[in-house]
């Protein structure tokens, strides 16, 4: 609940300003609760602008605000501050599942109303929130005459970053064919053309920041375009007709977010994105279940099975039962089955309109499988690949979810494989239109699947999604998503994910929310004989210990155990960590790390006493000392350590793994020695 800090509103005398034609700029500021972050908003030259400081250092230099419309006069210059209002909030809310149970939302909020200083006297409000870990702001455009049926062409929002030649950034390009599935680049700020968010920077003044957005609903996704050195301008992803957002006055934009930290780990420990989302709209969500799952999946990616019918068809009743037995034996919750429904034969990427979401191949008996699953205590996880033909999916959605509900399926993985900008929709006149994954149209389609599934108590794990903006808070059945290069790229990617990829993900993609990365492949050099002619031989460029550590490092409430069952059973000692590791947490803390180099996470099991630690490094071997300050006082823990052996090296000795147990307690020092592309996974088991 808000408590009004200043009850009265500060109303500026607009008529006075106009009458005397004064260009006296107004400026208002707000500080974070700890006073370290300052945002200043002003109307210098009748143009709304903002600046951000952290510990008195500039983080965002004078940056414009506003909007461009197709038919109405732009919200640009000619606007002055007309009213301001300050509020604050200090509360704790709970996540039904997540990295931590309790989240603190403490911020100060400043609403600044701007008014056009000549007819038609339009107004809009910029709402800023200052948290200790950064800021958020959004546009709120109230209903007013002449602004119904608005078409936004772009925002004028800028993020002007200091010292673009001397500051570093980690980023992926935007508007490219492979959506968000690119390798992260590290460069100086001034070498960037257009980037997706989350966009991470280390300023030359030592401050870390991440630019992103929160609560992207009924609006276009924002990308960042560098227009002059250091001047990053919002570029909204348009519809196929060039308009970015089709709306009417009485709307607000998503929050534009800037997370700010003194250390790289500060970005990882920030809850700012979730705090800027609306509370849970689904009520009781005890039916949303975190957990681990296996699947008839990796085999398709490495070529031992096929999605389509034939000798190698993976989705058979028999094989699914075998996987269910395997899951039951080790306490895993679900079995994902891809390729069960008709439409996969032939070029399924091009022919997504042929997919049926209710018709199974004859060798897959949904009723029998779900019955078997009930018997052994394992859920079938559903799968809907659309290949980007979203109208085909929409037309079958109600029947498809009803069918799954009938058979007790509680979770569905969806897929939107299609080149970016190539999502197929059929418009009201029956014409095919091509849309982007992060345009307003698809923002709505993804949410449609989540809200329709919620009606049937089904959770959704979206692949080829729009980027995450924290909507899991509002719709907790949006349980995970992909939205970056996942493990699958190690099966067939050219090149596969390099050693630094997962560390890069932590400081970029993962800042937006959970990722269904699918860690934990044990056969790191699969299929070596079938790789002739490839520029890069496909293998998993990590040590085995790092594969284990990823379960703790890359947060997702659902984690896959993706490799073929026989590869796990061949290494039972290492497999024990995957059997033990939870996917839902009471507390989480990034305890050490540097962007793109390494990270150490500690997490406490939700509802339990055990702690887990995951540490990973890039291509460089390294030793990291940490203090076990996170453990509970007065307890002794059996510390089960899975670490790289003395000879471990991802290229020559990836399987050199040492498993050892020690006794330790809070405050003890622990040295983590990681091999090239190595890692450490630890269970702290309370005695
Ligand atoms: C891409 C997904 O990321 C992958 O996991 C899935 O197997 C294929 N699409 C087929 O749906
Ligand atoms: Ca994918």
Keywords, please?
TIM Barrel, disordered N terminus, 687 residues, seven-stranded parallel beta sheet, 3 domains, binds 1-deoxynojirimycin, binds calcium ion, alpha+beta, Beta-galactosidase, Chain A, domain 5, 13 helices, twelve-stranded antiparallel beta sheet
Word description of this protein:
- 17% of the residues lie in helices and 35% in strands.
- It has 13 helices and 40 strands.
- A hairpin with a 5-residue loop joins strand 34 and strand 35.
- The protein is globular.
- Bound molecules: 1-deoxynojirimycin and calcium ion (CA).
CATH first level of the largest domain: which class?
Mainly Beta
The total number of structural domains is 3
Structural class: alpha+beta
Low-confidence stretches: 1-23
Task: Work out the helicity level.
Answer: 10-25%
Bound ligands, named by name, code or SMILES: 1-deoxynojirimycin, calcium ion
Summarize the structure.
The two termini are 42 Å apart.
């Amino acid at each position: 609940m808000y408590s009004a800090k200043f009850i009265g509103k500060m109303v500026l005398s607009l008529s006075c300003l106009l009458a005397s034609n004064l260009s006296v700029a107004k400026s208002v500021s707000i500080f974070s609760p700890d006073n370290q972050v300052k945002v200043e908003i002003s109307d210098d030259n009748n143009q709304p602008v903002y600046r951000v400081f952290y510990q008195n250092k500039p983080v965002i230099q004078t940056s414009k605000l506003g909007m461009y419309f197709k038919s109405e006069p732009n919200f640009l210059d000619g606007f002055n501050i007309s009213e301001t209002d300050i509020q604050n909030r200090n509360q704790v809310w709970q996540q039904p599942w997540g990295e931590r149970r309790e989240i603190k939302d403490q911020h100060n909020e400043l609403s600044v109303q701007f008014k056009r200083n000549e007819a038609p006297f339009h107004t809009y409000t910029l709402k800023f929130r200052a948290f200790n870990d950064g800021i958020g702001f959004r546009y709120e455009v109230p209903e007013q005459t002449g602004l119904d049926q608005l078409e936004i062409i772009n925002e004028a929002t800028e993020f002007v970053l200091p010292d673009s030649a001397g500051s570093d950034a980690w980023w992926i390009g935007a508007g490219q064919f492979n959506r968000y599935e690119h390798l992260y680049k590290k460069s100086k700020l001034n070498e960037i053309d257009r980037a997706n968010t989350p966009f991470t920077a280390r300023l030359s003044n030592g401050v870390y920041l991440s630019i992103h957005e929160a609560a992207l609903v009924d609006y276009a996704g924002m990308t960042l375009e560098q227009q002059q050195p250091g001047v990053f301008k919002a570029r909204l992803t348009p519809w196929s007709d060039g308009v970015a957002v089709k709306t009417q006055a009485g709307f607000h934009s998503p929050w534009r977010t800037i997370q700010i930290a003194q250390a790289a780990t500060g970005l990882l420990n920030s809850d700012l994105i979730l705090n800027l989302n609306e509370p849970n709209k689904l009520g009781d969500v005890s039916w949303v279940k975190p957990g681990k799952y296996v699947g008839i999946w990796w085999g398709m990616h490495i070529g031992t099975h096929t999605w389509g019918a034939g000798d190698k068809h993976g989705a058979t009743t028999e094989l699914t039962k075998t996987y269910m037995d395997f899951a039951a034996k080790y306490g895993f919750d679900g079995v994902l089955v891809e390729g069960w429904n008709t439409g996969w034969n032939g070029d399924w990427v091009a022919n997504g309109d042929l997919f049926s979401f209710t018709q199974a191949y004859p060798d897959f008996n949904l009723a029998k499988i779900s019955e078997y699953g009930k018997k052994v205590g394992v859920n079938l996880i559903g799968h809907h690949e659309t290949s980007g033909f979203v109208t085909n999916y929409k037309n079958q959605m109600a029947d498809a979810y009803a069918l799954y509900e009938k058979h007790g399926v509680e979770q569905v993985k969806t897929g939107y494989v299609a080149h970016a900008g190539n999502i197929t929709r059929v418009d009201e006149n029956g014409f095919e239109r091509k849309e982007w994954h992060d345009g307003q149209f698809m923002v709505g389609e993804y949410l449609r699947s989540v809200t329709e599934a919620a009606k049937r108590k089904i959770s959704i794990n979206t692949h080829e999604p729009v980027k995450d903006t924290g909507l899991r808070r509002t719709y907790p059945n949006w349980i995970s998503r992909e939205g970056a290069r996942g493990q699958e790229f190690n099966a067939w990617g050219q090149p596969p994910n390099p050693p630094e990829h997962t560390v890069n993900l932590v400081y970029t993609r993962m800042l937006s929310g959970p990722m269904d990365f699918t860690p934990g492949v044990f056969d790191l050099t699969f299929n070596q004989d079938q790789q002739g002619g490839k520029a890069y031989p496909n293998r998993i460029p990590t040590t085995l210990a790092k594969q284990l550590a990823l379960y703790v490092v890359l947060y997702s409430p659902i984690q896959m155990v993706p490799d073929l069952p026989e590869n796990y059973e061949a290494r039972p000692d290492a497999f024990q960590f995957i059997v033990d590791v939870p996917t839902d947490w009471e507390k989480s803390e990034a305890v050490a790390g540097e962007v793109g180099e390494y990270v150490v996470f500690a997490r406490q099991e939700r509802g339990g006493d055990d702690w887990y630690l995951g540490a990973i490094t890039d291509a460089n071997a390294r030793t990291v000392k940490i203090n076990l300050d996170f453990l509970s006082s007065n307890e002794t823990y059996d510390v089960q350590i899975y670490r790289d052996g003395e000879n471990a090296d991802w290229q020559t000795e990836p399987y050199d793994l040492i498993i050892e147990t020690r006794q330790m307690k809070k405050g003890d020092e622990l040295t983590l020695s990681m091999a090239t592309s190595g890692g450490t996974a630890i269970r702290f088991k309370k005695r």
